[in-house]
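sry for the spam today, last one i promise. struct tokens for design, 795 residues
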């Protein structure tokens, strides 16, 4: 076990002393070591409410084979050795003596687990207080740091008095609010939109969870999650597409001007007449929050707000799947939270309600579609949005549903498309009366999405350009945290790395965290103190705590793919000093037994009754059902361990015997080895406590599984007619050679010297592209084809 910790501060002694006093610990050196230690150790058992029960707890902590902490803390105490202190400390942190570590050697276990320790035996009150402060900021076996663990056992249960307040320790907001005692309320925010064409401004429902302490005048920051799934989803089997059995020959080539989106003018819509004002809502919010990180901060005095946006239950409008209206609806919520927009207590009476409890500072959180809308809102430059924490987020919807002139499904969801997602999230359908009234309007809007997404050519168009948030990155003024899985084939890594590249030169703080998982959150991953990092970050961003978060937190954190529970901190990703590129010729640098293949993948897929998931595993095996439908090229072992970091690039010269085709490329980590599994494994069910007598969630960890012969590193796809970009089309003459260039998905991979790279070139991708039945023959001119690898040459 490695408990990496990036968010721990080391303030000066005077600051530590003051912060310990603020927590209620005794800090007067005049008490002497013995009394000070006995007094403060007793406070570490908040569940024990009498001197007798506290003594019983102390007696349950062993410091060696014969003595307990109670035995140690006697009036004659003059020194606490490091062995004694950390034998006790490890048990306080949740580790078990004799099972997890040896009582006689706790320091070796602490070093292996990456837990900090003091340098000397403790002989003075000052040394004891320094050791206590360090212990309170140290991570526990149960993911959170020790003070957080104490809080979930009641350490702060009586903290709030007549004057509600925040408490900060080690630069972070502490768990001093009762998340069970909150207002749950619903309001309707007036937008500038009329997406359903009824001549009125769309009202947007928002659900608010805010501490009761706001009633006493405490103004709090807000975590806002724009969640299109918040009010439920619909059946989509009827609209999910079947992969086409043919690839259309394209006859029209677009220009850059044609594919550049032009903003549509908004109609001048009258505001609702305000007929009164209230401070209390009329509707109780009966739906729970969906993100444990938000719940964690609810216990720290942050309000949380969820809004599903246009076209969802309780709101007006229609779904757009990433369109400008969805961005505007997220922005409208932020504007209400900062006092720049109206909201009402119900849909008809025009009684205004203000976010009078908000301090005007907002962060957006969420994964996937939720994180996507955070990125979208950030590109508006809306005032009051201080930061976004976007996880596994889309930065261009074309890169989610299309690639280089191809229809490409998100991993695991063959047949999904923009119209499918629109139906999935159109939760107005759940209110039957509302749905029936809106059905003609919705049917028309949905038909437009189906038409404009263009599943025939797969080309980049103005419709997709309107859903490319990277066009507007220059407008971003808020700070950005992005997390993403290096094995996320749903929202592929290109989305986050292209975003990172676009943010690099902006005058904002930005952080990037890349993990070995797929499409997942990382707040409950044991080896990373993500929760504590975000506490440091949000305390800085939303509560003006001068904790140095932008400087302390690494710009880039990448999880190692060879060593478990290991994270690397870098200044940048895929650029700058320490990076180079290596271009390899497919004939000279690789070995292959042939240069031609016939793509019969669809027939093989059907004959073996494959699924998308099984295909993904099968196509990268050295010996596969698909051997005859691909080229397998081995790159000899590198002399030493190498690290790929960035975006690989492929240049191919080839000819085919059809006027169009799908071209796919996979880069594989080959060689028998234990590698990380597809999903994080359960470490402890409900082990991550979010507050005192409150919710808990599972603790997970990315881990290695049984050995495999190979694993996918990255891939890329292209329509052979899209040889230059995603919107220009070039005629392909059967039998005549042509050149094509495209990028693979960005990656970070450490390749040990006992493993090697393999390159797979094939046609249709059964898991993600159309599945043509016509057999296409491919011949690759290996002498004129190249793979360029991005390499990190130094840490």
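last one done:
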């Amino acid at each position: 076990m490695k408990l990496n910790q990036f968010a721990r501060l080391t303030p000066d002694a005077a600051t530590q002393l003051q912060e310990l006093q603020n927590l209620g610990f005794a800090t007067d050196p005049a008490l002497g070591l013995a009394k000070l230690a006995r007094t403060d150790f007793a406070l570490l058992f908040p569940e024990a409410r009498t001197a007798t029960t506290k003594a019983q707890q102390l007696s349950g902590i062993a410091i060696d084979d014969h003595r307990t902490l109670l035995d140690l803390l006697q009036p004659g105490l003059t020194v606490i050795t490091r062995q004694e202190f950390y034998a006790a400390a490890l048990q306080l942190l949740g580790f078990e003596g004799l099972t997890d570590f040896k009582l006689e050697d706790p320091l070796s276990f602490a070093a292996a687990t990456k837990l900090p320790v003091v340098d000397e035996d403790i002989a003075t009150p000052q040394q004891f207080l320094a050791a206590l402060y360090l212990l309170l900021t140290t991570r526990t076996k149960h993911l959170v740091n020790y003070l957080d663990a104490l809080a979930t056992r009641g350490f702060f249960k009586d903290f709030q008095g007549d004057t509600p307040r925040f408490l900060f320790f080690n630069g972070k907001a502490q768990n001093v609010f009762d998340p069970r005692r909150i207002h749950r309320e619903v309001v309707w925010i007036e937008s500038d939109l009329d997406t359903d064409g009824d001549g009125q401004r769309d009202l947007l429902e928002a659900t608010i969870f805010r501490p009761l302490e706001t009633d006493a005048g405490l103004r709090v920051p807000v975590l806002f999650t724009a969640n299109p799934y918040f009010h439920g989803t619909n059946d989509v089997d009827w609209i999910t597409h079947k992969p086409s059995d043919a690839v259309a020959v394209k006859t029209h080539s677009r220009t850059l001007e044609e594919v550049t989106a032009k903003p549509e003018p908004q109609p001048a819509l009258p505001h609702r007449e305000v007929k009164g004002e209230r401070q209390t809502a009329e509707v109780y919010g009966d739906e729970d929050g969906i993100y444990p990180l938000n719940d964690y901060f609810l216990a720290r005095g942050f309000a949380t707000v969820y809004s599903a946006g246009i076209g969802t239950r309780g709101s007006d409008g229609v779904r757009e799947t990433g369109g400008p209206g969805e961005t505007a609806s997220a922005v409208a919520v932020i504007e209400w939270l900062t006092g720049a927009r109206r909201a009402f207590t119900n849909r008809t009476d025009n009684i205004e309600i203000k976010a009078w409890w908000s301090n005007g500072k907002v962060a957006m959180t969420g994964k996937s579609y939720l994180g996507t809308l955070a990125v979208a809102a950030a590109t508006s430059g809306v005032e009051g949005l201080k930061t976004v924490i976007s996880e596994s987020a889309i930065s261009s919807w074309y890169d989610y549903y299309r690639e280089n002139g191809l229809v490409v499904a998100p991993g695991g969801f063959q047949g999904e498309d923009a119209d499918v997602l629109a139906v999935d999230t159109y939760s107005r359908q759940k209110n039957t009366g509302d749905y029936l009234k809106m059905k003609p309007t919705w049917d028309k809007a949905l038909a437009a999405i189906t038409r404009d997404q263009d599943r025939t050519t797969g080309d980049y168009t103005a419709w997709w350009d309107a859903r490319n948030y990277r066009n507007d990155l220059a407008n971003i003024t808020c700070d950005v945290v992005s997390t993403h899985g290096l094995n996320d084939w749903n929202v592929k890594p290109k989305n986050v790395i292209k975003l990172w590249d676009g943010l690099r030169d902006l005058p904002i703080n930005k952080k990037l965290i890349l993990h070995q998982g797929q499409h997942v959150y990382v707040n409950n991953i044991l080896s990373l103190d993500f929760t504590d990092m975000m506490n440091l970050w949000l305390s800085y961003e939303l509560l003006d705590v001068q904790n140095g978060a932008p400087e302390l937190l690494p710009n880039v954190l990448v999880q190692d793919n060879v060593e478990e529970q290991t994270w690397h901190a870098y200044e940048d990703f895929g650029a700058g000093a320490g990076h180079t590129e290596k271009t390899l010729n497919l004939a000279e640098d690789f070995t292959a037994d042939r240069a031609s293949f016939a793509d019969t993948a669809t027939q093989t897929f059907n004959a073996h009754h494959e699924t998308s998931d099984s295909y993904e595993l099968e196509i990268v095996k050295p010996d596969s059902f698909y051997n005859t439908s691909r080229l397998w090229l081995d790159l000899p072992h590198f002399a030493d361990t190498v690290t790929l970091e960035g975006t690989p690039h492929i240049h191919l010269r080839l000819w085919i015997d059809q006027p169009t085709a799908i071209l796919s490329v996979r880069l594989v980590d080959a060689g028998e080895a234990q590698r990380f599994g597809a999903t994080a494994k359960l470490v402890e069910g409900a082990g991550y406590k979010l507050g005192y007598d409150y919710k808990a969630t599972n603790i997970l960890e990315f881990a290695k599984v049984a050995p495999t012969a190979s694993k996918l590193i990255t891939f890329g796809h292209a329509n052979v007619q899209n040889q230059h970009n995603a919107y220009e089309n070039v005629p392909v003459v059967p039998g005549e050679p042509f050149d094509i260039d495209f990028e693979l998905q960005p990656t970070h991979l450490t390749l040990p010297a006992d493993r090697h790279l393999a390159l797979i070139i094939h046609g249709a991708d059964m898991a993600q592209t159309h599945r043509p039945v016509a057999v296409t023959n491919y011949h690759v001119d290996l002498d004129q084809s190249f793979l360029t690898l991005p390499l990190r040459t130094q840490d």
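The domain at 579-675+707-792 is CATH 2.60.120.260 (Jelly Rolls). ok im logging off now
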